[in-house]
Design a protein that fits this description.
The chain is globular and about 45 Å long. Helix 1 crosses helix 2 and helix 1 packs across helix 4. It has one domain: C8orf32 fold. The strands form two sheets. A six-stranded antiparallel beta sheet has the order 6-5-4-3-7-8, with helices on one face. Helices cover about 40% and strands about 20% of the residues. The protein is α+β, with helices and mostly antiparallel strands.
Length: about 210
């Protein structure tokens, strides 16, 4: 199942629900275990659905169950990227945590990495010119297609052209890293993004891959 996630784990690594349950129980107790069971139920419910249903179901699941809280309050760090288990266990997270959780969940539902990228953007706040760093998940029906944007700020899934408040800086997935809105990968994301590499390593330990 690791290969199905579009990530290249060690040969011993595999999606392991029982190890995920043990990891969640040890770190976050019964409350964490309850939301993990909801996540397993979501996977079962959406497994045979079409792509639009999968996108909506996954987007809604995390937007409703994770409360946006700044990293410094949740983790005591300025910029911490959580695994889906950590985000669900805490019930809190910021934009990277929503995007990673949605990405990994869609991977587990059979949506391959060629269709998905986490997109780092500058987001304009309201009608002002003030911007802040933000991350969303993009679904690309083809490599050159305009992506659909899954976001924790705007609950509806919309084409990128309708999100005039977002300016893309770079995007990445398990296989590549792209500058701006480019269609050609420029680098290995594991080599260039240390926080993504750390998330991958922790997911292997927890039982995701």
């Amino acid at each position: 199942m690791g290969a199905g996630l579009g990530i290249h784990p060690t040969s011993a690594a595999a999606f392991d629900p029982q190890r995920l349950r043990q990891s969640m129980q040890q770190q976050y107790g019964q409350a964490g275990l309850a939301i993990l069971e909801e996540w397993f139920a979501l996977l079962q419910q959406l497994q045979d659905q079409d792509i639009q249903a999968k996108l909506r179901g996954v987007n809604d699941f995390f937007n409703r169950r994770i409360r946006w809280v700044d990293d410094i309050q949740v983790w005591g760090e300025e910029d911490f990227w959580a695994t889906p288990l950590e985000a669900m266990g805490k019930g809190q997270g910021d934009c990277e945590d929503y995007s990673i959780a949605k990405y990994i969940t869609l991977k587990q539902l059979g949506v391959t990495s060629q269709y998905l990228r986490m997109i780092y953007v500058r987001a304009r706040i309201g009608r002002s010119q003030i911007t802040q760093a933000h991350m969303v998940l993009g679904y690309y029906s083809t490599p050159d297609a305009e992506p659909l944007v899954l976001d924790n700020i705007v609950p509806s899934i919309t084409p990128a052209s309708q999100r005039t408040d977002l300016d893309p800086l770079f995007s990445f997935n398990s296989d590549g890293l792209w500058a701006g809105g480019g269609s050609e990968s420029r680098a290995d994301p594991l080599a260039r993004l240390s926080r993504w590499r750390s998330v991958i390593e922790r997911m292997q330990t927890q039982g995701f891959i």
